[in-house]
Every structure is written in structure tokens, then in C-alpha cells.
Design a protein that fits this description.
heterodimer; A: mainly alpha; ABC transporter involved in vitamin B12 uptake, BtuC; B: mainly alpha; two-stranded antiparallel sheet; 74% helix; globular
Chain lengths: 306, 288
């Protein structure tokens, strides 16, 4: 039972991180290969706050998220105006820089041997509750003005600009939101495992999250979360094959991208209307109409002020 | 002066990575993140064959280069062919290449474990006396082979039929196709050359450092070099790589190897703020 609880808690924490990645990658089409470094920032800052400065848990989380967002702003500033390739390259470099920084600042972070002695605060209820709150926030973000602008920018940046959307600003908002959510997942993580070390937050971790988003369907929040559930639950089920895990992951995703590029669920979202449609044995009404509808809405609104 | 020489040698390896990366970027307009893992994979292939058969340096390099090229071709077929045919947006290329990278790295980890390996010593003398300077043999070798390969590459791209085809496809995919250029062939060529360069760079990195499954992380240096030089530009990539190599050796000398990635990252950020087009200048905005 304890094992199942701990697996579930891990899955919930991963869901929080993936929600952040979804906002960035699924909605805006930007890829951050240093997303795990923001998780590291969240973990380390909150852990240092609590253990060395005696700040209570919740304010420590808030401070950690703010620090991560400020640093994210510096990282994002030069890149949001450029091609989307740059944000991947720059965040990849950022990840390397953070890892070496954590390894070097030994008396603050414990260096390569890791940061120990973090009190255990996160339990399954906190993790599950946070996951639900983050999912609701992300769903709200997707349906808000910003979410629709993000989708417009993702589909065609030039056209979005022509419609009056301030593309760099939208990209920055999406980036910072995702940084905040991911940093928060880092706080949860640190106070669950009570131990963090720099190797946990390499680019492989960020890549894994992106893979989860695409596995379930990069256009669908429901799909991304389903993907996370399946892919992070899978290694626990087949522990004997731990070595082959990343290979199995990769092959699965290559199959999906080649043969069902929109992911497991496509653009299907868990909404009341779609569930009803499911039970009435009708096809959900947005096999691919969802986005054209959204962009039409934006078009009808005239130039969106931002 | 000594530092400068080491820096140029290191920079020439970065130049191999950056050009290999730019080649695919130019043709398909996406960043190929499997490049690093491909380096690792071919470096390991070279290592295992060299260590088992007791071969010398030249066969090792050749094996790694051929492996890199072949795997890159297979990777194109498996991961990118259908996406290209479907004219999907660049996101799918991204995800495909990231996944491919994870796949390569997973395969290496299965075969080699998370251990460190050392290439056998290839040289009798670790250093060579050149006038007043002492140059390590491996540095000299890295520099000379990289220089030859890069000059050859520039020649092929600028003067031959294959190179012209490749450049026209990277300039305008559709028009090149209409003009009767076999675009699939051109893309395959780009992946082939890029894979071969990755193999070469992998062996050099393996000789210079040790061999371990996440060696591919070194590819970051190639990426930074191509960002500094201007994404997709060859002269820019080579220039950026040499500059980066020299800056890095200088930094390692003065502040130690721990903090140098941090400083290099800030240099790159500053560079992007001041001159986002890079040294050589390239298109930085998303085109329609």
C-alpha cells in the first residue's frame, strides 16, 4: 500500500510538471530542454529556504516560484523575439549551466553528493490536490484570451502577428507560466523525496516530459495527462525491464508520431459536452474543427488587444 | 599562446559538431537534437570495435564515421521520412529528433552500462615539440583532421553537383523539387554527411575526455557555437566554434571548469540580446 501511495504521489508530481510543459509545448509550440532545470531551481530554493533559513513550507514555495520566474524572464528575454528553435537551444544551455552551478556551490547545495535533510511534507493529498489545481489552472489558461493567442501563435506566428497579437509577449507569458508550474513541482518533489541531487534534472527529464505531452496528444490537456499517467506508471509495472525503459518510450513515441501524429487523444478534451457525445455514440464534434473554430473566434474578435 | 593552441584544437571539434548540426538545420529548418546521442553511439561503436579487434587509430575513426553516417540515414528513414512527406510543422521534427536521441542514448546505456570507458592510447608520444611550443599529439591530430574535413566539406558544398543540389533544396524546398532536384536524395545526403561528422566528433571527444553514455551532452557546445555564429550558417558555425573553444580554455584556465558553463551561458545570452543574427547573420524570425 505504501508503495502504491508513493508511486501515485510521484505520478501526481510528474503531472504538475507536465502541465507546465503542456502550456509551453502543447499550446505555444515552444520546446524547453531546460525545463527540468527550473524544477531544480524550485527544489533547491525551497529546500534552502526551509532548512537553512527556517522559512515555513508555503512561503518557501512561493519564494522559490518567484525566483524561478525571475530567472526564467532573463532566459526568455532574448529568445522570445527569435525563431522558436532558439528557446530550445538556449534552455538546453541553461540546463547545463544550472547543473554545473549546483555541482559547484557545494556549501549551499551540497554539490554532486546532493542536498539532504529536507523535511518530508508532501504527501499524496498535497500532491494530488496540487495536480488538480494545476490542471484546472491550465484548462482555464487554455480557454482564456492568452490560451487562444498561444494557439494562434503556434499555428502561424506571422498570421497571428498580422491579427494584432503581440507574439513575443504571448510567448513570454506562456513561458513564465510554465516555469512557475514546473518550479512548483520541484518544491513538491524536494519535500517528498527529502533528497535532491543535480543529476536528477538533466535534459533527459525535460525530453521525457515533452514525450509524455506528445504521447497523449499535444493539442489536448486531457491527452497530455493521460500520457503522463501511462508513461510514468509503466516503468513501475515492468520493473524488471528498467534498462529498456527509455528505449521502449522512444519506440512508442516514434510509432505514434509516424502513424497518429496528433497523439492518443488527438484534440479530444474531457468536457461535459464531449462526454455526453461519447455516451450518445456520436462522434465528438471536433475531429479537427476545434482549432479552426478557435482561430475564427480570434478573427471575429478583430485585432485582439494585448 | 599554449592556451590559444589548445583552444583552437577544442574549437575545431566544436566546429565539426556545429557544422553537422547546421547541415540538417539548413535543409529541414529544425534543430536536430539527436545529433549529440548519435555522436555517443558512433563513438562507442568505434571504441568497441577498436578495443575488441585491437585496431589502430585510423580504422577506429573510420568505423565511427561509417556507423554515424549509416545510423543517421536509418534515423532519417525511421523518424523523419513520413513527417517530411506530410509537411508537418516543425514541432514534429523536434519531438522526433528528441525521441531519436533518447533512443540512441538508451541503446548505448543497455550495451555499455553507465560506466566510463577509455580509448586505448593511440600515440607513442603524448606531446610533440613544435619550435618553442609543446602540442599534445591528440590536439594536433584533431585540429588537422577537422580542418581537412571542413575544407573538403566547403568544397563539396560549393563546387559539386551534390552540393549545389543540397544548397538549392535548403534555399527553397518546393522550387528545387520543381526544378528536377531529387529532394529525398538531397535530404539523405545531408543526414549522411551530418552523421559522418557526428561520428568523427564523437571519436575525438572520446579520445580527449572519457567515453560515457551521456557524452552527447557535449553537443550543447556545438549548439552554442552555432547560435553565436548564426543558426544554419557554415562560416558562422566554424567561426563561433573556434571562438567558443578559445573562450572556454581561457575560462577553464582562470576560473576553473566548474563555473565556465555558467559564464559561457551568459555570454550566449548577451550575444543573443545584442546581435541575435549571430556573427554571420541568418534568418532569425519565423517565416511564413
Amino acid at each position: 500500500m505504501a508503495l502504491i501511495t508513493s508511486i501515485l504521489t510521484f505520478i501526481f508530481i510528474t503531472i504538475v510538471s507536465v502541465t507546465g510543459v503542456y502550456i509551453l509545448t502543447g499550446l505555444t509550440g515552444m520546446f524547453s530542454l531546460g525545463q527540468a532545470a527550473f524544477m531544480a531551481l524550485g527544489s533547491y530554493v525551497s529546500a534552502i529556504m526551509v532548512t537553512k533559513l527556517g522559512v515555513p513550507f508555503i512561503p518557501a514555495c512561493v519564494i522559490a516560484v518567484i525566483v524561478a520566474v525571475l530567472i526564467g524572464f532573463v532566459v526568455g528575454l532574448p529568445t522570445v523575439r527569435l525563431r522558436r528553435d532558439y528557446i530550445s537551444l538556449v534552455t538546453l544551455g541553461f540546463g547545463e549551466a544550472i547543473t554545473s552551478l549546483l555541482n559547484q556551490a557545494t556549501n549551499l547545495t551540497g554539490g554532486a553528493s546532493g542536498f539532504t535533510g529536507i523535511p518530508k511534507i508532501t504527501n499524496i493529498w498535497i500532491a494530488g490536490g496540487s495536480a488538480i489545481v494545476c490542471i484546472v489552472l491550465a484548462a482555464y489558461f487554455k480557454n482564456s484570451k492568452y490560451g487562444r493567442q498561444c494557439i494562434a501563435v503556434r499555428n502561424d506566428e506571422l498570421a497571428a502577428k498580422a491579427m494584432g497579437i503581440n507574439a513575443p509577449r504571448v510567448k513570454m507569458i506562456a513561458f513564465l507560466t510554465s516555469v512557475a508550474v514546473t518550479a512548483f513541482s520541484g518544491c513538491l518533489y524536494a519535500f517528498f523525496t527529502t533528497y535532491v541531487d543535480p543529476t536528477l534534472f538533466g535534459w533527459k527529464k525535460s525530453a521525457e516530459w515533452i514525450i509524455m505531452v506528445f504521447f497523449g496528444g499535444s493539442n489536448s490537456l486531457t491527452g497530455s495527462i493521460l500520457g503522463t499517467f501511462l508513461l510514468s506508471g509503466m516503468p513501475e509495472v515492468m520493473r524488471s525491464l528498467a534498462e529498456y525503459r527509455s528505449v521502449v518510450y522512444a519506440v512508442l513515441v516514434l510509432l505514434i508520431i509516424n502513424f497518429k501524429p496528433s497523439g492518443l487523444l488527438g484534440e479530444w478534451e474531457l468536457t461535459r459536452r464531449n462526454i455526453r457525445a461519447l455516451f450518445h455514440r456520436r462522434k465528438p464534434d471536433d475531429s479537427n474543427g476545434n482549432y479552426t473554430e478557435t482561430s475564427k473566434e480570434i478573427a471575429n474578435d478583430g485585432p485582439t488587444r494585448s | 599562446m599554449q592556451i590559444l593552441i589548445n583552444g583552437i584544437a577544442l574549437g575545431s571539434v566544436y566546429a565539426l559538431i556545429a557544422t553537422g548540426f547546421s547541415l540538417v538545420f539548413n535543409v529541414l529548418k529544425f534543430s536536430n537534437f539527436s545529433h549529440g546521442a548519435l555522436m555517443t553511439l558512433s563513438a562507442f561503436a568505434g571504441y568497441f570495435i577498436a578495443a575488441q579487434k585491437g585496431w589502430g587509430l585510423v580504422p577506429t575513426i573510420l568505423t565511427a564515421v561509417v556507423t554515424g553516417a549509416l545510423i543517421s540515414l536509418i534515423g532519417e528513414l525511421v523518424a523523419f521520412r513520413r513527417i517530411i512527406a506530410r509537411k508537418s510543422s516543425s514541432e514534429y521534427f523536434f519531438v522526433s529528433s528528441i525521441t531519436l536521441g533518447a533512443l540512441y542514448e538508451g541503446l548505448v546505456t543497455i550495451k555499455a552500462g553507465a560506466n566510463f570507458y577509455n580509448y586505448p592510447r593511440f600515440f607513442k608520444n603524448a606531446t610533440i615539440q613544435l619550435g618553442n611550443w609543446v602540442v599534445s599529439t591528440s590536439d594536433l591530430l584533431m585540429f588537422s583532421i577537422s580542418a581537412i574535413v571542413l575544407i573538403l566539406l566547403v568544397y563539396v558544398l560549393n563546387k559539386t553537383r551534390i552540393g549545389r543540389g543540397l544548397r538549392s533544396v535548403s534555399f527553397d524546398f518546393e522550387t528545387a523539387k520543381l526544378m528536377g532536384i531529387d529532394s529525398t536524395r538531397a535530404i539523405q545526403t545531408a543526414f549522411l554527411i551530418s552523421g559522418a561528422l557526428a561520428g568523427l566528433a564523437g571519436v575525438f571527444l572520446g579520445i580527449n575526455y572519457t567515453l560515457y553514455p551521456t557524452l552527447g551532452g557535449m553537443v550543447v557546445k556545438g549548439f552554442i557555437a552555432s547560435v553565436i555564429g548564426g543558426l544554419g550558417s557554415f562560416p558562422g558555425a566554424i567561426l563561433g566554434a573556434l571562438l567558443l573553444g578559445m573562450t572556454e580554455t581561457l575560462l577553464i584556465n582562470f576560473v576553473g571548469s566548474g563555473y565556465s558553463p555558467v559564464i559561457i551561458f551568459f555570454i550566449m545570452l548577451a550575444f543573443l540580446l545584442i546581435r541575435p543574427r549571430g556573427l554571420a547573420g541568418s534568418n532569425v524570425q519565423e517565416k511564413a
